[in-house]
Amino acid sequence: MQIENPDGTRSNVVSLVVAAPNVTNDAIALSRTSPAATGKDIVVVDPTTAGVSAQGNDVDLNVVALGLFSVTSNSCNLAGNSVPLQRPTSGNATFDLCIFSESGLDTSMTYTVSGPGDVTVTTKQPAGLGIIHLTLQIPASALLGGTLGHLHSHVDEVPAFQPGEEVYLFLWARDGEPYRALGWSQGTFRIARNALTGLETVTQDSAATPIFALQTHAFRRGGIRNLPVAIFREKLHKILRQQEQ
């Protein structure tokens, strides 16, 4: 497998090995007279507890089921499917979810919704039997998609950002509402740095989307790709100066 960077370059090729469950245990006997052993292969795998936020807890992080939590009846309807949450037309909306893991979840752990970062977990409460009750807050400006546990929702052209990532964003907003990325992928430009030369370039998210041309009946690529930041900024300043005249 390889990891593709925002600028299109790829990492070195590494092997992804799925280890079969261990069925027997083998003891390696060492002593002062025999301090070494040969012919023993030790395979270390990454457990599902590797990302747990509470130290010392042996917890299976796989989310088995989730569903909507009813505050009035103090109950939840667990299922294995994703839960659609309606984004409000204005302001903020809150939704109560219940999440279940086989090893149990509790309030000492940290819960976040990955993605653009506009959906926040405001409260966490125990719901019994290893079920956690989370309250999510979704603003009207929230982008579509996100990840909760092993459940992932992705909408084409909706940008997602990582902490510390540097981008150029073209934003717009209605009166009294937060800013949004203009045209989603069209208004998102990722900054990449060449490790050898230090050159900074920008690539538009929409450059990865094929466009069907009616004249040629073929797909083509559009958008800005690997353009030096200095040239990008100069083009942008030129357009702004023209609009001011």
Key features?
4-stranded antiparallel beta sheet; 1 helix; single chain; mainly beta; flat; 5-stranded antiparallel beta sheet; 28% strand; 245 residues; 7% helix
If helices are DSSP runs of H or I spanning 4 or more residues, what is the number of helices? 1
- The residue fraction in helices comes out at under 10%
Average the pLDDT over all residues and give the rounded result: 79
* Total beta strand runs: 15
**N- and C-termini, Cα separation:** 52 Å
Overall, the morphology is: flat
Largest beta sheet, briefly? 5 strands, antiparallel
What's the SSE pattern?
EEEEEEEEEEEEEEEH
Tell me what the structure shows:
By secondary structure, the protein is mainly beta. The chain folds into 2 domains: 92 residues, no CATH class; 87 residues, no CATH class. It is built from 1 helix and 15 strands; from the N terminus they run βββββββββββββββα. The strands form 5 sheets. The chain has a 5-stranded antiparallel sheet with strand order 2-1-3-5-4, with no helix packed on it. Strands 8-11-12-15 form a 4-stranded antiparallel sheet. It has a two-stranded antiparallel sheet with strand order 6-7. The N and C termini lie far apart (52 Å).
Element layout with pairings:
Elements: E1 65-70, E2 75-76, E3 92-100, E4 120-128, E5 131-139, E6 146-148, E7 151-153, E8 167-169, E9 171-172, E10 180-181, E11 188-193, E12 200-204, E13 210-213, E14 218-221, E15 227-228, H1 229-244
Antiparallel strand pairs: 1-2, 1-3, 3-5, 4-5, 6-7, 8-11, 9-10, 11-12, 12-15, 13-14
